[in-house]
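2024-03-11 09:14:02 DEBUG pipeline.ingest accepted 1 chain
2024-03-11 09:14:02 DEBUG pipeline.ingest length=321
2024-03-11 09:14:03 DEBUG pipeline.predict start
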Amino acid sequence: MSFSANTKNELSRTESERKCCKLAEIAGFIRMCGTIKLSGGGKINVKLLTENPAAARHFKRLIKDYFGINAKLIIAKASILKKGHFYELIIESEMNAEQILRETGILLVREGCNYISDGIFSDIIKTKCCKRAYLRGVFLGAGTISDPEKGYHLEIVCNSEVLSSDVRKLINSFGLKSKVVTRKKSFVVYLKEAEQIIDFLNILGAHGQLLDFENIRILKEMRNKTNRINNCDSANLDKTINASAKQLESIMLIEETRGIASLPDKLYETARLRMENPEASLIELAEMLDPPIGKSGINHRLKKIEEIAEKIRLMQNENIK
């Protein structure tokens, strides 16, 4: 399964607690992958199409939870040129379709006539939590992220220039620097820097994929650096890289769950230095401390950090059970 699919699967397990956030997430999803047809007599037809089964099930539940409406889920084979299936959610009742579109700010009225808005309805994203939820719906509907082993690229495909501009502004309201490029008849909002993509995954709430991305990125950087180092013992270097990656994974887990600031002072200082110097050996790391300590001392501290992370993993596994 691709990194992008795994990210969507994780986001589909994320449940918005506040009612306003549920509506914002639904609005983002419909805005990106909904097909809306207005016909004579005020008839309205809504279909939502996705290649991700977890996303389809997630929004079927979300629509039922928020609106009390049962969307019909249809599974269809993809075209001959594509593998897999498509998952289509259909709002069969015209009354239900109109209710959903009006409450999400997609169907508006101008001079007594219904029309579909091009951009994002501002009332739906008034709070920061609703902005996060809306972006989660947007990514689940039209987002992709490349495998970090191959490169750093995240994009969201929009069907109008107005929508792409609104999505870019919404992403950048969190301090990011997304850009827009035209591709055939689509407008693509994208991020290409690893740090920016990591921050965006955090905004969406994909913390598991964030950790995987960060670990892969760190390992790539370390491998790239080793290629520039001559006359080194490759076996010892691999051992250092693997140990550092394991330590960083433990530190990132603590940061995501409790924050490294919760650690005792000595462990906090050690964790901070390791995050800032992922390629450093134990001796180099020990010498960075003030006052410096020995190799065994720094190793003892890192072991303590790994023990704390292991306890967190055990607690998480117990909660899953």
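2024-03-11 09:14:41 DEBUG pipeline.report The radius of gyration is 23 Å.
2024-03-11 09:14:41 DEBUG pipeline.predict end
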